Amino acid sequence: MVEIGERAPDFSIPDQNGNTVRLSAFSGKRVVLSFHPLAWTSVCARQMMALEANREAFSSLNAVALGISVDSVPCKRAWAGSLGIGETRLLADFWPHGGVAQMYEVFDGVKGYSRRANVVIDEFRHVIFTREYPAATVPDLQDLLDLLQAQEASRREEEQAPII
Known about the structure:
Blueprint: E1 12-14, E2 20-22, E3 30-35, H1 42-53, H2 55-60, E4 63-69, H3 73-83, E5 89-92, H4 99-103, E6 107-108, E7 113-114, E8 117-121, E9 127-132, H5 142-160
Parallel strand pairs: 3-4, 4-5
Antiparallel strand pairs: 1-2, 3-8, 6-7, 8-9
């Protein structure tokens, strides 16, 4: 898995609507990459619905959450529709197969899909959080929200500190 402090590898892959998503396009924002094994599974569904449910909380903390799996664009589109996900972008790491998961070192080459993991990238494109989760576990987003809240509070303090 990528290490905290590393520069996050840039990527360019489509979302469920076929729109290209490039990590470097989120300059100035924090990005949560939420890797999940496969669409149409119950744990992955709960993981992506949690991202959608917390979308406004992420936004208020200058962050955007992206769900990523090796599924194709049509699969992701149908799955997002079935889950009622309208705002969160679900990325298709379909070709090259698992290319982004491989860059972030969460690809399981034996099973052919990514492991369940969250990676948080700061506004300067450095990795500030990584965690892998058991396959049958929905990641708790509170750790991510707490980290983002602490960072936002620290940033505000710096902005308000008097210049000497």
